[in-house]
Specification:
alpha+beta, Rossmann fold, single chain, two-stranded antiparallel ribbon, 8 strands, six-stranded antiparallel sheet, Glutathione S-transferase Yfyf (Class Pi), Chain A, domain 2, 2 domains, 254 residues
Length: 254
């Protein structure tokens, strides 16, 4: 899906702007400080309710305003609107209906930013690549968000119990849940990486690179064992250290 209309009000140095992007590639040009980056940031903000330039979301509000407002219309007919206010009375709406979670915006308007920091996806820490995989799965697997939240809770609870320092029935129960959701997400990730690999090979060929480059997904535990067996083997040292040494939180894409 694409954005067919965008309205921006009191966002950064933009007092008001209305654009209707054309299908395909759109280019914005102008002098320094004219609002080119702010316009791109507004599009990203509309789909994520956060900025790619600052961790302080309130920084997007113009100095002389109490709020920043962005409205958008997609080619699928979805109407999106987000308002960031200094008084914390924020608003997120999809087709006039209020939203509780910003992830619902991302479903309606998937956005990706490519900037100088994008190289860190390759050179940076594994957490960046895990987020990249999760972002993709969020948009192609309807139940990913729910499974991911369940996995995160299971990992957190298991680590809390490991810090106690002894095995318990509760530890076994949370470990079983962790294994269940880990294996589901791992299966989805492997499918997703296979699709990425196909696109990657095609792109490499288009660039004229005559080398066998591939993507390698490392799931976070040995390939010759299932996660349940790996966690059982590591249980004594997990209890000593107070955290899970193997699992999806150790995965990587290289």
């Amino acid at each position: 899906m694409t954005l067919s209309r965008l309205e921006v009000l009191t966002f950064r140095n933009i007092q008001r702007a209305v654009i209707e992007p054309r299908p395909g590639v759109n280019a914005f040009f102008g002098g320094n400080g004219s609002g080119k980056t702010s316009l791109l940031e507004a599009i990203y903000f509309l789909g994520n309710f956060r900025s790619f330039r600052s961790s302080q979301a309130s920084a997007v509000i113009s100095d002389d305003s109490e709020f920043a407002l962005i409205r958008g219309l997609t080619d699928q007919g979805d109407q999106l609107a987000v308002q960031r206010a200094r008084n914390k009375r924020h608003q997120l709406r999809l087709n006039q209906a209020p939203l509780v979670r910003a992830s619902d915006l991302a479903t309606a308007l998937p956005t990706v930013v490519f900037d100088p920091n994008t190289i860190l996806l390759v050179l940076g820490e594994p957490e960046r690549r895990r987020r990249f995989l999760n972002w993709g799965l969020f948009h192609v697997k309807p139940h990913f968000a729910e499974s991911w939240r369940s996995w995160s809770r299971a990992l957190d609870q298991r680590n809390r119990l490991l810090k106690v320092g002894y095995a318990s029935d509760s530890l076994k129960e949370w470990t079983a849940l962790l294994v269940k959701y880990s294996e589901t997400i791992d299966f989805w990730r492997q499918q997703y990486v296979e699709g990425l690999q196909t696109a990657f090979v095609q792109l490499i060929a288009q660039l004229g690179i005559d080398q066998p480059l591939t993507l390698e997904y490392r799931r976070g535990w040995p390939q010759d064992r299932d996660l349940k067996a790996a966690l059982e083997e590591d249980l004594p040292t997990d209890l000593k250290r107070g955290f899970s040494q193997k699992g999806l939180h150790r995965s990587d894409l290289r």
